[in-house]
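Hi everyone, sorry if this is the wrong subforum. Our group has a chain we'd like a structural model of before ordering constructs, and none of us has done structure prediction before. Sequence below.
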Amino acid sequence: MNQLQLETLVLGPVRTNCYLAKNRSSGALLILDPADRADDIVRKITAMGGKPEAILLTHGHFDHIGAAMELKTRYGIPIYALDKEQEVLSDPVKNLTCWYGSGYGLTADRYFTDGEELLLAGFAVTVLHTPGHTIGSTCYYLSGEKVLFSGDTLFHCSVGRTDFPTGSMGDMHRSLHETLFLLPDETDVYPGHEAPTTIQYEKRFNPY
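Answer:
Right subforum, don't worry. Here is the predicted structure as C-alpha cells:
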C-alpha cells in the first residue's frame, strides 16, 4: 500500500514547488524545499495533520530555502542538504539571495553524502548527488513509493539553468544520463518548478 500523501505548494517570486511528504500511517512529514511564506506551509501541514520531522533541501538557491529557518525554529526540526552544497548555502552571492533582496547564508544541521540510504518519516530515501544546476544539487529517491524529488535538476522536458555560480552543463548531462535515467521508468518525478513527469517520459522526450 502506498504510504505517501503528497501535497504541493507553489511559492515565491519564481513559483517554486514546495513538497510536503506525509506518511499516512504515522503522520510523520518531510518538508522539501520550503521556498517562501512559512505561514502558508504551516497551515497546509496543520490541515494535513502532519508531524514535521525534517527539512530536505535539493540545493541552496534563494527560491528553495526562503522559509527554512522559520520552519526549523517553529517545529524544532533539522535542515538537511548535501555536503557539497555547503558553500552555495552559506554564500549570499552563490545562493543568489543578494540578487533578490538582502543577502544571507544558511547552514544545514546535517550534510548528506552521495548514495546515502536514509530512513526519514518512515520512508526509505536515497540521496543522489546530481550536480549541474549547482555543484551540490541533490535529488531524493523514495524507492518504496517510486517517487523522485528532482529539485532543479530535471524538469518536464527541460533541466535547470547551468549559468549560475557552480553550475555546469557537462555535469548536468552526466547527472541525467548516469544517475537519473538509470532509475525505473515508472518513477514519478516531482521537480522544483512546473508540472510532475516520469523518468520514462523524460528519457523519451527530454531534449537534454
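For your construct planning: The first strand starts at residue 4 and ends at 11. The chain has a mean pLDDT of 97.
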